[in-house]
Amino acid sequence: MSAIVIVAFGQPGRGSFNEAAERAQARLHDKGVPAVLTWVAERDPGRRAERLREIAGERPSLIVAHGGQGDGPVAQAAADFPALPFVITQGHFLAPNVANYEVLQEQSAFLAGVLSAARYEPERIAHLSGDPVRPGLAGRAAFAQGVRLQSGQPLRHTGFNGNQHDVELAVRNTRYFADRGVQVLFTMMDGGREGVDAVCRERGLRQIANVRNWVETDPQLYWASAVADSAWAIEQAVLDFVQGRLALGQRIQTGLENPDVVRLATGPDLNAAERAVLDDWSQRLLAGELVLETRFEGEESPFSVVSQA
């Protein structure tokens, strides 16, 4: 079999989302399924599409583009290579030779909003992310919905700074929120997280992170973490391909029903009332009693960039 290629957009060592690509590659290796991990550092969507065409031209057996950033580039490359199967993780583009595998980050993001509003007034809560791609927009909408349903009031502070990895942007915009009295910040950030961390420590903000369990690294800084292990999406897609059941043209999803992959990880300082609130809303989600919102209709912070989705 020719190579299975995992494409990660960005650079090694620049944040938790792309770390998932490395974890997935290691897990697949342990299962006897070799995969090549290729990094595409270019931010321009056209250049990313060119790189995917170059990779496709080497005739791999499968290309897995990790992240919603892959939607546009895969849409262009897949049309040029109709016989080659593609997978996008955390994306939305589908075609006869393209599948989506998705971890429902919005479910744990919703619970992060609920928890925030169980302790803090809405004017003390904020959301900050980088690229306004579909998974980030859906996560923000679900977080805001959790705040609103728990508190009865809308989320008032939110923005996308336009770059997942820019530390200085993250510093500037975290300070913007701190100056407005924010006490807890939900961050969907990658390499820029170190800038958020620095300001949170400097100004005494609690943080709820995402993707992996950050609480276990620093429970004083990270109050909770909206875990959504997107390594599952890569690993599952590759295993399905190897076993001859890749769901081309379809969307495969997993969420809170798979707690090893999706959950709200919490620190040691939650009280009984807060845990009861989380348990209640978790059960409602699992029972299908809630439809999570995918669009946020509130006011953006002044620095927020225009949506790419």
Verbal overview:
There is one protein chain. This protein starts with a strand and ends in a 23-residue tail after the last helix. About 40% of the residues lie in helices and about 20% in strands. The protein has helices spanning about 15-30, 45-55, 70-80, 105-120, 135-150, 165-180, 195-205, 230-240, 270-285; strands spanning about 5-10, 35-40, 60-65, 85-90, 100-105, 125-130, 155-160, 185-190, 205-210, 220-230, 250-255, 260-265. The strands form two sheets. The chain has a six-stranded parallel sheet with strand order 2-1-3-4-5-11, sandwiched between helices. The protein is globular. By secondary structure, the chain is α/β, with parallel strands linked by helices. Helix 7 links the parallel strand 8 and strand 9.
Q: Oligomeric state of the chains?
A: single chain
Helicity range of the residues? Answer: 25-40%
Number of strands: 12
Assign an overall shape. Answer: globular
- Quote the average pLDDT: 93
Low-confidence stretches: none
Q: Round the Cα radius of gyration to an integer and report it.
A: 19 Å
Largest sheet, order of strands side by side? Answer: 2-1-3-4-5-11
H/E element sequence: EHEHEHEEHEHEHEHEEHEEH
- How far is it from the N-terminal to the C-terminal residue, by CA? 36 Å
Proportion of beta-strand residues: 15-25%
Q: If helices are DSSP runs of H or I spanning 4 or more residues, what is the number of helices? A: 9
SSE-based structural type: alpha/beta
Q: Note the main sheet.
A: 6 strands, parallel
